[in-house]
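#struct-pred
JK: can someone run the complex with guanosine-5'-triphosphate? inputs below
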Amino acid sequence: MNAPSTKAGFVALIGEPNAGKSTLLNRMVGAKVSIVTHKVQTTRARIRGVAMAENAQLIFVDTPGLFKPRRRLDRAMVAAAWGGAADADVVVLMIEAHRGMTDGVKAIIETLSERAGSSPVALAINKIDKVKSEVLLALTKDMNDAYPFAETFLISAERGHGCDTLRDWLATQVPEGPYLYPEDQIADLPMRMIAAEMTREKLTLRLHQELPYELTVETENWEERPDGTARIDQLIYVARDGHKGIVLGKGGETIKAVSKAARLELEEFLGRRVHLFMQVKVRPNWLEESERYSEMGLDFKDGNT
Ligand SMILES: Nc1nc2c(ncn2[C@@H]2O[C@H](COP(=O)(O)OP(=O)(O)OP(=O)(O)O)[C@@H](O)[C@H]2O)c(=O)[nH]1
Ligand SMILES: [Mg+2]
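RT: done, structure tokens with the ligand placed:
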């Protein structure tokens, strides 16, 4: 008897910032590998998460949101997102049910067929928990009139509605072939980067206005200790003097709270104790330094185009 055949392929999740791409990736993987906030432009680089659907291995590629870039970092993020779509076996365009066909969505559709090449593109209308079903019917029609989607799914990435159906369909779309990752692997991202992202999420949730967009977090050192704990040192780069004080907070209360929240999440992820240390550094030019981009997993040159 022949061994049951396996399938494996890449599924790119693209869409406007805040569409719920990272939430969907985490749901599909069954663990939090990509950070989520209520703010736009949370994800900065491509993040891969691995999910199994019976005999198919789906490698979900979370991407930064697509928007009109202004700065070098924006351009590198948008290039990374489109690059994810170009490399994928299947593309899922996520939009928000309550926002509908925004100008941003229209702009994505304009270049979508060129970018996706011959890969099928599915539409996932997310956040259906926020609208009435009549809205969904009309939106499904309008979107399919605007683009020949292979299939449309109505989902709530947060609550899980429709996600199994989407996953099962995606499994039918990836090519036959051996698994690309060990079956127990859930992410393809170095732990030091996951740890830095967790801290950046906590900072983004606490800091206001532009500040989250003007900082970056790097894990400088990771030391495994004989007692089974880990000592992790992180650097938070801010662009302005004034920002340092805001990140620290009165009497250091902001950084303390951020550090505690990040540590708890990291301990849960790793299943062991962590000693987390953070330092804030003012580096006015970090947004123009190629090393910062490679640490984030972005291509510095992409920011030039
Ligand atoms: N009501 C509702 N909220 C959702 C749903 N899915 C995601 N969200 C929320 O939408 C916000 C954005 O979610 P993310 O997953 O960070 O969105 P994203 O597309 O990855 O955003 P960027 O990384 O900025 O491009 C978060 O506050 C989520 O909790 C959903 O199905 N329903
Ligand atoms: Mg995201």
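RT: quick notes.
The mean pLDDT is 96.
The longest helix spans residues 253-270.
JK: thanks, will look after standup
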